[in-house]
Design a protein that fits this description.
- This protein is 50% helix and 17% strand.
- It is built from 4 helices and 5 strands, in the order αααβββββα.
- Strands 1, 2, 3, 4 and 5 form a 5-stranded antiparallel beta sheet that branches.
- The protein starts with 14 loop residues before the first helix and ends in a 6-residue tail after the last helix.
């Protein structure tokens, strides 16, 4: 039977324990449990607050934009519906030539105004409307009138409400982002001031001993 060589470190009775001791010795970063023994509670708080604010940004910005855009769009739709309610088109006849002409870049040439008259179930009505150059007295023209038989603008479509809703959503999302970013910056400044104040207080106690000023 071969006698174990005592000079071989593998045959040392504490060889395995030495490895385990080196692997888990106190003060080793793995023994600290958090991966970084120099990480302070304030650093962990800063990290968790940043994560929380990031979640708020990811979830809150789309929600804020969608809510503001939807409310604005619904509001414009309601206003447009009430303004368009009762509007209808009638065929009128010019009672004079177009006057007060203003040159514009339109196929019809210059634009002016002319008096018109029309008749419906409620009787005969008169008014004044926009007309193009060349439309003479007696010409037929289609005009929009409201429930009170007054000439009015054509009904508005939903494009204005859609544009306003999109704009409101963008503004709301940008505002929410600015508020969250401001809250993060304010929290970091407040935490840094507290840490600086604590450091100065502790340094005022330690510095005299390190510099030996307390022995003089």
């Amino acid at each position: 039977m071969r006698t174990p060589d005592p000079r071989d470190p593998r045959n040392h009775p504490n060889h395995g324990n030495h490895r385990n001791h080196r692997k888990h010795r106190p003060g080793h970063p793995r023994a600290a449990g958090n991966g970084n023994p120099l990480r302070r509670p304030a650093d962990r708080l800063r990290f968790f607050v940043d994560i929380l604010l990031m979640v708020v940004l990811i979830i809150g910005l789309p929600l804020a934009g969608w809510a503001a855009g939807s409310l604005t769009y619904d509001h414009y739709q309601g206003v447009t519906h009430s303004q368009n309610l009762g509007k209808h088109r009638v065929t009128a006849r010019l009672t004079a030539d177009t006057s007060h002409l203003v040159p514009v870049a339109l196929p019809g040439g210059a634009v002016g105004s002319a008096p018109v008259t029309w008749t419906d179930a409620s009787g005969k009505h008169t008014g004044r409307t926009v007309a193009f150059e060349g439309q003479k007295k007696g010409s037929s023209i289609r005009v929009w009138v409201d429930r009170a038989d007054r000439i009015t603008m054509p009904p508005e479509n939903s494009s204005a409400g859609l544009t306003a809703g999109v704009s409101a959503g963008i503004v709301a999302a940008a505002t929410a982002g600015a508020l969250v970013s401001g809250a993060r910056a304010g929290f970091h400044r407040s935490l840094d001031r507290r840490l600086d104040a604590r450091w100065e207080k502790e340094w005022s106690l330690v510095e005299p001993k390190w510099s030996h000023r307390s022995d003089r």
